[in-house]
């Protein structure tokens, strides 16, 4: 599994060395927000490495496409995500995620957008649980742009000093992104399993038929 994802990551990076690198970045950022497994960071870094002067442009493109992809994922969840979730995970885990959305609202989306936690999980479930769309878009924009602009800004201002290092270790960096991706899925699984007992069960009110003797 890890090897297959690593090969997929190498295929993604290869687009940076074609005339369609920017287009591929936009498509990847959009797709990763709802269904594609590889984060766009690997291609973003490769493009910024090749052309540091356009790093801010790449960060803007990646952020906008990712937010649009998040809206698409939200739509998938809103118009058909619940039956799909029921096929993939148990009802108790769905209740667990819903409980945390009720507790933290869209800030869970913002955190997922900035961290290695799989963003697509939060975009689809946000639609399933009908989070406010405007606030969802705002949280997505904050989380995703914060993450991608961090990369773009570093390359724009310090491109030459850090390019040599990243060029030397680009393959290792792509592996680390794959490991972070797998770690994000593991974190969600472990987090839900550990805290499942804290999710309140639905209240059942017993009705007693009381008759006068």
TrEMBL record:
Keywords: Membrane, Transmembrane, Transmembrane helix. InterPro entries: DedA_domain, VTT_dom. GO terms for cellular component: plasma membrane. The chain crosses the membrane at residues 12-36, 56-77, 106-130, 136-157, 169-191. Residues 38-155 form the VTT domain. PANTHER family: ALKALINE PHOSPHATASE LIKE PROTEIN, DEDA FAMILY PROTEIN. This is VTT domain-containing protein. It comes from Desulforhabdus amnigena.
């Amino acid at each position: 599994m890890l090897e297959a994802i690593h090969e997929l990551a190498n295929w993604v990076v290869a687009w940076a060395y074609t005339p369609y690198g920017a287009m591929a970045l936009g498509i990847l950022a959009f797709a990763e927000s709802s269904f594609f497994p590889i984060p766009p960071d690997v291609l973003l870094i490769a493009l910024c490495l090749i052309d540091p002067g356009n790093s801010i442009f790449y960060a803007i493109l990646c952020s906008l496409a990712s937010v649009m992809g998040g809206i698409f994922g939200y739509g998938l969840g809103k118009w058909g995500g619940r039956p799909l979730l029921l096929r993939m995970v148990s009802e108790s885990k769905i209740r667990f995620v819903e409980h945390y959305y009720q507790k933290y609202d869209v800030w869970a989306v913002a955190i997922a957008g900035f961290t290695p936690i799989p963003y697509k999980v939060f975009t689809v479930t946000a639609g399933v649980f009908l989070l406010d769309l405007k606030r969802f878009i705002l949280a997505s924009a904050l989380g995703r742009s914060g993450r991608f602009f961090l990369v773009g800004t570093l390359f724009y201002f310090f491109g030459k000093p850090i390019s040599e290092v990243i060029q030397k270790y680009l393959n290792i960096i792509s592996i680390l992104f794959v490991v972070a991706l797998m770690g994000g899925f593991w974190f969600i699984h472990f987090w839900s399993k550990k805290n499942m007992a804290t999710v309140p069960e639905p209240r059942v009110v017993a009705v007693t038929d009381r008759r006068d003797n």
